[in-house]
Amino acid sequence: MSATKTLCPYCGVGCGLEVLPPATPNQATHRDAAGTPIWKVRGDRAHPSSQGQVCVKGATVAESLHKDRLLYPMLRDTLDEPFRRVSWDEALERVVERLQTSHRTLGPDAICMYGSGQFQTEDYYLAQKLLKGYLGTNNFDANSRLCMSSAVAAYIQSFGADGPPCCYADLDETDCAFLIGTNTAECHPIVFNRLQKRRKKNRKVRLIVVDPRRTPTAAAADLHLAIQPGTDIALLNGMANLLRRWGKLDTVFIDECTRNFPAYVETLRHYPPELVARTCGIRLNDLEKAARWWGESDRVLSLWSMGLNQSSEGTAKARTLINLHLMTGDIGKRGAGPFSLTGQPNAMGGREAGGLAHLLPGYRLIKNSQHRAEVEQFWQLPPGRIAPRPGRDVWSMIRGIEDGTVRFLWIAATNPAVSLPDLRRVQAALRRSPFTVYQDAYDPTETSAYAHVLLPAAQWSEKTGTMTNSERVVTLCPQFRPRPGEARADWEIFAEVGQRLGFGAAFEFTDAAAVYAEFVQLTRDRRCDLSGLSHARLASGPIQWPCPATETENISSGKRLYGDRRFATPDGRAVFAAARAQGLAEPVDADYPFVLTIGRLYGHWHTQTRTGRIPKTAKMHPEPRLEIHPRDAKKLGVVDSDWVELRSRRGRARLRAQVTEAIVPGTVFAPMHWGALWAADAEVNALTHAVACPDSLQPELKACAVAVSPVARSPQAAAEDMTAPTHPSPPASSAYASKLQ
Ligand code: SF4
Fold this sequence. Notes:
Elements: E1 4-7, E2 16-20, E3 40-43, H1 56-60, E4 74-75, E5 84-85, H2 88-106, E6 111-115, H3 121-134, E7 140-142, H4 149-159, E8 176-180, H5 184-187, H6 189-201, E9 206-210, H7 216-219, E10 223-225, H8 232-245, H9 251-257, E11 258-259, H10 261-268, H11 273-280, H12 284-296, E12 300-304, H13 306-309, H14 314-328, E13 337-340, H15 347-352, E14 359-360, E15 364-365, H16 369-378, H17 394-403, E16 408-412, H18 416-419, H19 423-432, E17 436-440, E18 453-456, E19 465-468, E20 473-477, H20 490-500, H21 512-521, H22 535-538, E21 543-544, E22 574-575, E23 594-599, H23 615-620, E24 625-628, H24 630-636, E25 643-647, E26 652-659, E27 667-671, E28 704-711, H25 715-718, H26 735-739
Helix pairs in contact: 3-20, 3-21, 4-14, 8-11, 8-12, 8-14, 11-12, 17-19
The structure holds iron/sulfur cluster.
């Protein structure tokens, strides 16, 4: 049997995979440690984005597909009861009945769905059509809110439209890579490998990494700027100040292609280099070196991800980075541009399909009346059906459960009982939710404990659909394994609910190809024009957008946006942001003197729902550790491997200490993917807060104030005297209280 070509379902790099069927009885290979036959995975050399490369997660993904699967619909009336297996008919009747009751009694705003960048585009699209179109609520949000919504807002504000302008070929041609807020080596390893290959071939290519931690990415850099958490805007404006002082500007580009430069220049006056170096906690020489390298390079490529995005000023941070590209003309040309790396495999497809509470399909905005009218007309809905205001972002959904205005919560393909900030508060809200549907491939997860209905979802390999990676390359992911039990594709579930609600032909689709064919029509003449794509065409190989219907040439990648220097704003000009730094939403104080920052480890993904079930990746990180600088550890009387307790205003966690100079003094780091299923009392989101960027509504998961103290015993030993986690009210006078509603 020949290999099936598909896309890795983990991160937004989007590596092409080839999967081969399990062993025949005579073959010893293609089996996992327990002897279960598994599909073999290897890199697809023909995939333009990854060229045959694959990291440990992609290589082992097939080992998780058969484990701990949710096989049948399950139902219960209260969270105290055990689940009972029911038919799909009974489960969906209950879902429909509760949807109708919630809609009738409290209106469409009482209904919410929280989806996922693990969705394929077809799943995303039908969820939008059901919620935003036919149910009349914009309350669809996705876990991409936690990942890259600041990048979306920044692109829209700076360029007039979303969409990363760069492509991976730029990694092969850049003179200087500027990585800020991204541990690319661990979180986007194949992108990092490609960059390293470029540096190996051309020793003059420089790598600058900005990160409070000496990550593996930082360790490989020519210059590591270990700034204090929350000082990114100061650093970027300080570099801009120097570039301007040295005359390293592309004045033609600034004059002809941008606006708001004078206001930006005015802002830069507040960032003299000496002050910036002090604020950031770095040497002036290093600040100057970073600015000099940027200014001397013909092609600067910047990469960023959650380190910038997960901030109460995430949009401003990303825009401040984009400013540097605008002032030096480093955009729309080979080897240059501001490149946001997406976390999830199809976060980009979600953006195309309108999969956040303020978006509509085709990079349209809810708040734009023309955009709403276009979608209403396409969906054959009466004018005014799509509500004019953005729906609830995920945190607003949690608040809605707390105040009784949300009566129906549908969670699909994500695990908010681990991944949301202020986790004890979230868990308490989920416990109070009148009706929660949880649609997932795996059970148990930490979230399945809070559901009234469990719907078994077919996952990657068991359904056909498309995904778009960070460089806008769309890949068809065909079904190649049978579905376990009674699992169904997410889009099929949404379509059936739409039909049971009486929306008839609008939700009649023969297959995923038909869903995609409808969706791409909504992208015609939009920035993300996919109207030339179909499942049939993608069966020949991945294709990068824009791909209008008129484009017949099979261009596979290498296209960059804004090569014509015309942006998507009304006047065609990109917009400089004049952003001043606000600092951390929750600064340290005498009671909580450390900044806690959190992040991913190489072998982890998505709260470990898959990677925790794969021996090879699980063994890579046997336990969660708290990284702490030796100077801080000494003050606390902590040595390596000691147990420490972390406390914030919201909760606590206990981890072993890892004493290391890899983290700056005053800051501690903990890995973020340990939920209650995988370690006792190690949920770092019990500590984080939900204060979010006002533009993107992305929470500041990357920084909160904590206290650290040594404890004598392990969490297991301490379990008896640990009281149930609580959610203390923050002091009324605190910065946190004033920002969090
Ligand atoms: Fe999958 Fe990302 Fe690894 Fe590529 S880099 S194999 S997409 S996890």
